[in-house]
Structure formats: C-alpha cells, structure tokens
Amino acid sequence: MVKITDVAAKAGVSVQTVSRVLNNRGYISQATREKVHQAIDELNYQPNELARSLHRGKSNLIGLIVPKISHPFFCELAYYLERYAYQKGYKLLLCNSNRDKSKESKYLEMLKKNRVDGIIMGSHVLDVEHYLNLNLPIISLDRILAENIPFVSSDNVKGGKIASQLLIHKHCRKLAYIYGGIGGPPHNALLASGRFQGFKQVIEDNRIEYTTLLLDETDSGMEFNLNKIIGFLKEYPEVDGVFASSDVIAAWVIQACHHLKKAIPEEIKVIGYDDVGLASLVSPRLTTISQPIQKMSELTIELLTKQIDGEEVPLKNYLPVTIIERDTT
C-alpha cells in the first residue's frame, strides 16, 4: 500500500508539505503543488479520509436516516438531499432504518464513529435521549424529535384542509380518510398526523359525515392493504370522496375502485398527498397535495450546514403546500 512517505520521497518534499497540499493549508508554491500531485498520480496514492478528517476536524460527511428508502417520497427526498449536500461540499451516508429500534440505534452509532458532521433524521423510533446524546448538529424531517432540535416540514394541517375543501366543493357528502404507516411502531410525534387534523376540522365545520381506515403498519405488502381497502369500500358503499395520507395509499384506492368497478371521479373522488412521480403515472392521474420536496431538501441542507458552522437556526420551519388537481376529482 502506497504511503504518504512514498509520495513525499518521489516528489522530493517533506511529509508535512504533502499533507499541506492534500488539505490545502498554508502557502505552497504552484511548482511544489504540481510535483506533489504528479507523484500522487504516478503512485496512485489514496489518502486516508478518516485521518484527514481528524486532522481537519471535519469529515464533510452527512448522515441521512430514513424509514424506508423504497417509499417514493423518501426516494425523491434522498435524491434532492444528496444533490444539495454535494453542492455544499458534503457527501451523504444513507441509512435505511425500517423503523426498527435496534437498526436505527446501530446506524446512529455508526454515523458517530465515522465522525459525520451532521445528521438528517427522517425516522424516529428511539427515545429523545438517543438523539440529544449524539452532540451533533441534527435536522429532523417531518417529525419532532425534541423541543430544541430544528425540523423542516410541509404544512400538513393546511394540506388536510385543502383536501377536504376540494372534496366538499366537488359535492362529496360521505368522506373517508385512509391512512397508514410505513412499517414499524407508530409515533404520535409524526407531524403527518396534522393531515387528518386539518381534514377533520373542515369536515366538522361543514357537518359532513366521514369515516376512517387505518392500514396495516407492518410490511404485509400491497395485496393485504389493497384487499383491506376493497373490503372497506364494500362496507361503506356510500363513500364518495377519499383523502389518502400518501400518494401510494391513493394508488391502492384507485386499484380498489377498478376492482369494484367504481368510476373515478364520477362515483368516487380521490386525493393523495406528496405529489411524487407516481401521482401522474397512475390511471386516472391522481389529484394530490403537493409537498415541496425539492425546497424542503434544499432548506434542510442549508439549515444543517449552518449548524455545522456554528450558526443558530430557527427551530420550526414550515413550507406551504399546494393542490395539484388531475383526473381523480
């Protein structure tokens, strides 16, 4: 294995000079820089990133923990977070917790051992002490970890209100809210529960009937939940408007309606939440509450890098939502 001493010998300089070139510290003449880089290329020297991070006191690594990367929302979120992190000079370490307590705990320990500069939490199954004891900059996405940990979220309550207002405007008179988790233990701290709060508030103000369906919280798969929705719509045939807590669940509702030969939007109208790519690919195309996923990602990276640099950032960061009306309403 090529060592830094080999590079120094080939370039005819000291080890300290090679180190300063690698870390871009102190004055080094252009001629010396070129000699060192030429030696690095000829020897194919690979610097020890961990050692360099210890020397600099910074790793330029950010940890991201999500509950389920296969979920379209978290898939798109991770894409944009990586893009904006890279633009700021950081690399992203992606951890998929499956909302498993042991797995999430081990990932947090791994990120700490790898001396990441900060962590983005898209999952939350541990007690708050686990996050506070990290002593690292943290930004939470769409959930509250602790009162003093900043979070970024879309305005879930407003999203629920917009959904119910549109369904009522479209003359729906028996509404349903269909929701579920993405695996693992549920938590009241999830800000997504605000979607139902907003939805319910408008419905009760207008004295509209509604019912709810909680889908399975484990990885039972699409077929189980699809059959559960089919059974629900058979039990409540008068339901003419559905608000689903995600676009994935809304897609299951559409499939259930196809199975029951219920015409969309003539007999039943459907609204999702997120506006991931799936929403415009299902048939009929899905009306949905659009979370600004790209802006949420950009703001998350901005806030985290400011924390890393020692700056104070606001704790509560809500971004507005909009409704994208397509063929299901």
From TrEMBL:
InterPro entries: Cro/C1-type_HTH (IPR001387), HTH_LacI (IPR000843), LacI/GalR-like_sensor (IPR046335), Lambda_DNA-bd_dom_sf (IPR010982), Peripla_BP_I (IPR028082). CDD domains: HTH_LacI, PBP1_Qymf-like. This is LacI family DNA-binding transcriptional regulator. It holds the Pfam family Peripla_BP_3. PROSITE patterns: HTH_CROC1, HTH_LACI_1, HTH_LACI_2. Keywords: DNA-binding, Repressor, Transcription, Transcription regulation. It comes from Bacillus xiapuensis. Gene3D superfamilies: 3.40.50.2300, lambda repressor-like DNA-binding domains. Residues 5-50 form the HTH cro/C1-type domain. GO terms for molecular function: DNA binding. The keyword Nuclease does not apply.
